[in-house]
Design a protein that fits this description.
Two copies of one chain form a homodimer.
Chain A: E1 4-5, H1 15-21, H2 31-48, E2 54-58, H3 61-70, E3 78-83, H4 86-97, E4 101-106, H5 115-124, E5 130-134, E6 136-137, E7 142-143, H6 146-153, E8 159-163, H7 175-178, E9 182-186, E10 197-202, H8 204-209, H9 222-229, H10 240-256, H11 258-278, E11 282-283, E12 292-296, H12 303-312, E13 315-316, E14 318-319, E15 328-332, H13 339-355, H14 364-374
């Protein structure tokens, strides 16, 4: 059966990139790799919209998240963590695993943080060393206002550390301009690659903290990695085939141009939202982002059954995670995705919902999406 | 120019495996991935020759090394580290980064550890919690007698933790039978894959220590990973494309059979050694392993110049690392390598040495290797 991958990561890899990665393996301690990595370094800075070097690790995104914690903080430090979904919770889990004193700012699943709540937390927990936030909370589909958070956090001693795993290359995140101190991301989202690379970029302010941070680290040691990168190398063996692919996908992204990439994601997201709403469905997120559309399962229908029904038709989407299991389903439009992927997703969704006894007027969701896409 | 990759990692990837990895991306939270990973789990246990689950991480081999440290030890623990090259030193560096009390057993580069020295260290540092060793010290080409070390360490409370990164699938390491407590490895060596996967297998004795270990960890948390693996999943997004390739390379290895794989590597190593010795060159390692042949640069010739000369002819080998830089060069015969790769390496080496003014009788090295390979 023909397969469509429309889950929020891993996302589809362009065929030309798959073939680039299928070239014979090269060694990393060679001029050839160093020339390749020099291109990647330059393009990563453009993608992250930051002047400092972007660090790269052979790891999934969680690896760079751990790196952001252990390279900037010391045992017992106070930190504020915005928790509004599985990935906000992961920041707190990492911080707790390393003995930090976590002050959570909890928001209901599907909601976005009120920046005033973070300002309040910074007042109640003075001398907090960092605020951890999630730009695109993939588990709920919600986007958080990082620009507003940066404006608040910048007035304190705290660093603003942002999970940009499903926002980098999807929505604008000019980290230097906004004053984000650390942004982390991964390869298997808008970067259109297989999973296995993670990234971290730091502001000057964040780099100043690194020598003071006393949490232990080795594999995710930022100083060691920055030193290696200066010579177009990595401290430990890099995921060479993924770096080969990364050069190709960065070229694709930068050739389209960041404004074009963000506009495309926004248009696809608006189309997907219009489509599901035309079917009478409700969005799970109050302020949905452009990475994926999370849809509340209608009364009497299990979100997992929708995911299974889609899979039977060759389409992979995602269900709800943790306590959201069964209550929603998530359709991605991130990375190597075009208008007809959205049309396909909505067309299949209509048929699956009909199978499950939900009243559907075939073409209603697709048509609503088309009207957005045609505009 | 036609390229030959004969460095000790990354090693060549079989073309069929490259193409398997170039298939469209699949999602990991699906029955398809779970069926794939069930095969991988089973085959990894056969490869590691252990009954317990083999843990897999999206990381290079150093990641699993760090995991072995942080999941078995607590701050201030005494550990004994065998250091006879760059990778033995890495164990010590990781242990020191995590505040362990390191008792080194230092041996000159190129030598293998005398098991009695480890027994002596265990007496001088009683209550040591672990002994860290390297099966195949890739930086010197030396093999260490892990079976003998296991016999000694097993009589104490210490765990024996072994870097098997360039020995797994190259030389026999029956970890359960010998009593090795932790073995770690990586994908880009005898497993014939791109870098980006690392592995760790633990004995029952090692698993008993994990709940007592108080070093902080998150990404490399072994308990969380073991729990996920039981459901054919991973705690965090796995390096899906590499896992797809891993199923293929494990099949290749197990179809050939471990005894056949070890015999092949041994034969290629003997041929390479015979070849360089027939050229009047000296082996760097006193007890060379079957992963790579480290050759001492002859007087007046820089090892780096040999590496560069080989590269100009399309052949990637490795030079010396750290203080061994310039003093040696290393030819790998690990993984997807056959007799004619050894012939190629020696043929090119003869021509490069002649370029550098070293007296060479063309065909002398190749011929000596052929005699081993023909036997």
């Amino acid at each position: 059966m023909k397969q469509y991958l429309l889950a929020p990561g891993p996302t589809p890899v362009p065929p030309a990139v798959l073939l680039a990665m299928a070239q014979p393996m090269i060694h990393h301690r060679t001029p050839e790799y160093e020339a390749l990595f020099a291109d990647v370094r330059r393009d990563l800075r453009l993608l992250f919209q930051c002047k400092n070097e972007v660090l790269m690790f052979a790891a999934s995104g969680t690896g760079a998240m751990e790196g952001a914690v252990v390279n900037t903080l010391s045992p017992g430090d106070r930190v504020i963590v915005v928790r509004g979904g599985k990935f906000g919770e992961r920041w707190a889990d990492i911080c707790q695993a390393y003995g930090l004193h976590v002050f959570p700012v909890d928001i209901p699943y599907g909601k976005s943080v009120d920046p005033a709540a973070v300002a309040g937390a910074l007042e109640r927990a003075p001398a907090s060393k960092a605020v951890f936030a999630t730009h695109s909370e993939t588990s709920t589909g919600a986007v958080h206002d990082i620009q507003a958070l940066a404006g608040i956090v910048r007035r304190t001693e705290a660093l603003l550390v942002v999970d940009a795993i499903t926002s980098l290359g999807v929505m604008d995140l000019p980290m230097d301009a906004w004053g984000v101190d650390v942004a982390v991301s991964g390869s298997q989202k808008a970067l259109m690659l297989p999973p296995g690379l993670s990234f971290a970029a730091l502001s000057d302010r964040a780099w100043e903290r690194v020598p003071l941070a006393r949490l232990p680290r080795f594999y995710f040691d930022f100083v060691r990695e920055r030193k290696a990168i200066a010579g177009n190398q990595s401290a430990y063996t890099p995921a060479v085939s993924l770096v080969v692919g990364l050069r190709e996908t960065l070229r694709l992204i930068l050739t389209e141009g960041l404004p074009g990439v963000f506009a495309r994601h926004d248009r696809l997201a608006r189309a997907a939202r219009a489509g599901v709403q035309a079917l009478g469905l409700t969005l799970f997120a109050e302020h949905p982002g452009a990475a994926c559309t999370a849809v509340t399962a209608p009364p009497g229908i299990d979100g997992g059954a929708v995911v299974k029904g889609m899979r039977k038709r060759g389409i992979t989407i995602a269900g709800g995670q943790g306590s959201m299991k069964g209550k929603m389903f998530r359709i991605s439009h991130m990375g190597y995705v075009d208008p007809f992927d959205v049309v396909t997703a909505l067309g299949a969704l209509e048929m699956v919902l009909a199978d499950l006894g939900y009243p559907v007027s075939f073409g209603a969701g697709v048509g609503a999406a088309q009207r957005v896409l045609q505009a």
